[in-house]
Amino acid sequence: MTTIEKDPGTNGAAAAKTSAAPLLEVRNLHVEFKTDEGIAKAVNGVSYSVGAGETLAVLGESGSGKSVTAQAIMGILDMPPGRIPQGEILFKGQDILKLSGEERRKMRGAKMAMIFQDALSALNPVHSVGTQIGEMFRVHRGMSKKDAKAKAVELMDRVRIPAAKARVGDYPHQFSGGMRQRIMIAMALALEPDLIIADEPTTALDVTVQAQVMDLLAELQREMNMGLILITHDLGVVADVADKIAVMYAGRIVETAPVHEIYKRPAHPYTRGLLSSIPRLDQKGQDLYAIKGLPPNLLAIPSGCAFRPRCASAQSVCGEEVPALEQVTERDGTDLAGRGSACHFWKETIHG
Ligand code: ADP
Ligand code: MG
């Protein structure tokens, strides 16, 4: 095994970030579901990684396999009908797919936690928010009711819920959508996990509240040096918070890149389409460009490139060969760090 030596000129934290093995590494993950109509191939060879303190944004239209990948990582896939025929999920170097159900259950909350889109259905309506946050400490840490309640108040303060002490006994429906989402963030962060997966955490909220909740999540992540996988279909949300992006289509990663580069120079026609569908304040009144057509039926993914039927640049090879995720380079052949594209014509796409 090779290790990157610490550069004495850099500070410890930065050096640790570059030399550590990734916190999470998904390798060639496949997930399929048995349905009445046949086998739905929801995830078809996804690989991605996220380090401590790093934010990976996973983008793609509805149905591209973002949530199913997350559920596989968390160990909350419906199995059956779900099945993982192939792949590895390495958490701190250990393949957690090989662990027992009990071992996975212990990791949830303590080592990795998930924030869902819909707090109202994720939270229990018949228990106070204080009880639900406190439950994390009672179950995993064996704390007394009184201590757990004090912890709940502390966490509600930390996610900036006003009058936390007075509201700890309130029920989920007594909070606004934004405040409920903060409560879910509080529960997820309670045990200071190493990894957070936020699955469309702000989609259900008003635009102004979205930004506040996202800022809070990003701030806490930085403070606690957690790895964050942020799932969204909104490229506009990720620009400020993500370090890198993986774009998914039909259960595959079609493009990867450091966040700012993808906005400047997408290397996949699908990403280009997503980028042009971001609403722009300076173009009020204009129609949004949405990508024409629909994602494929996962029971019958087209041959070759799954995006081909919707792609204006498609050639005959696109119907014949599945494009591999290739290293993207400059015109002169130098590698662009962290950049990959699964398009037969990525050179034309990025260099035009
Ligand atoms: P998204 O990218 O929108 O998060 P998902 O990962 O939720 O997409 O879903 C990917 C595909 O997997 C969808 O077509 C969905 O219908 C299918 N799928 C997810 N869960 C199940 C299930 N329990 N049974 C059958 N199909 C499922
Ligand atoms: Mg989803």
How would you describe what is shown here?
- This protein has 14 helices and 12 strands.
- The longest helix is centred in the middle third of the chain and has 18 residues, at 207-224.
- It is an alpha/beta fold and 352 residues long.
- The two termini are 40 Å apart.
- It has a domain at 1-105 and 233-279 and 288-352: 3-Layer(aba) Sandwich (Rossmann fold).
- The strands form 2 sheets. It has an 8-stranded mixed sheet, sandwiched between helices. A 4-stranded antiparallel sheet has the order 2-1-4-5, with helices on one face.
- Adenosine-5'-diphosphate (ADP) binds at residues 33, 35, 40, 42, 60, 62-68, 78, 81-82, 298.
According to DSSP, the number of beta strands is 12
- Rounded to the nearest angstrom, the distance between the terminal CA atoms is 40 Å
Query: How much helicity do the residues have?
Result: 25-40%
Secondary-structure element order, N to C: HEEEHEEHEHHHHHEHEHEEHHHEEH
Write the CATH homologous superfamily of one domain. P-loop containing nucleotide triphosphate hydrolases
Average pLDDT number: 90
Oligomerization state of this entry?
single chain
Q: Give a short account of the largest sheet.
A: 8 strands, mixed
Gyration radius, rounded: 21 Å
Strand content: 15-25%
What is the CATH class name of one domain? Alpha Beta
Side by side, the strands of the main sheet go 6-7-8-3-9-10-12-11
The assigned structural class equals alpha/beta
Shape: globular
Helix count, per DSSP? Answer: 14
Stated plainly, the CATH topology of one domain is called Rossmann fold
Which stretches are low in confidence, meaning pLDDT under 50 for 5 or more residues running? 1-19, 281-288
CATH-derived architecture of one domain: 3-Layer(aba) Sandwich
